[in-house]
Design goal:
single chain; alpha+beta; three-stranded antiparallel beta sheet; two-stranded antiparallel ribbon; about 30% helix
C-alpha cells in the first residue's frame, strides 16, 4: 500500500471519488500554456492568440510515448473503478480476437451480441 502524505494548504489538488476509492492528485503548478493552441491537422496547430500556424514533429520521443501510456493506464483505471465496486455478483470480461481487429464497427457488434 502506498504511503499516506499530507496535502499542504493551498496546493493544487484534484480529488477523484469513484465508488469506494478516493484518489487525490497534487501538482506543482497549473498548466496554462497549452490552452492557447488548437490542433487543426495531423501535425499542425494554431496559436489562438496570434493566429500563427505551427507544425509539430512527426516522431514522438520514447519519453512522450511512456507518458501517454501511463496516462492511458491511469484513465483506464479510473473507468474501471467507476464501473466496478468489487461486489461478488460483478463479472469482468475481456473480449480478445485471435488477429488484430481494427474494424471498430464489427467490435461493437460483437460486444452487443455478447
Amino acid at each position: 500500500m502506498e504511503e499516506k502524505k499530507q496535502i499542504e494548504n493551498g496546493q493544487l489538488t484534484k480529488v477523484y471519488h469513484t465508488n469506494h476509492i478516493v484518489e487525490a492528485i497534487t501538482v506543482e503548478k497549473r498548466c496554462t500554456g497549452i490552452a492557447r493552441y488548437r490542433k487543426v491537422s495531423r501535425q499542425g496547430y494554431v496559436n489562438l492568440e496570434t493566429g500563427e500556424y505551427i507544425e509539430s514533429k512527426a516522431r514522438a520521443s520514447p519519453i512522450d510515448i511512456e507518458k501517454r501510456f501511463k496516462k492511458s493506464c491511469h484513465e483506464l483505471r479510473k473507468i474501471i473503478n467507476l464501473n466496478f465496486t468489487g461486489h461478488c455478483s460483478e463479472k469482468f470480461l475481456t473480449l480478445t480476437y485471435s488477429n488484430v481487429m481494427r474494424d471498430y464497427k464489427q467490435v461493437n457488434l460483437d460486444f452487443k451480441r455478447f
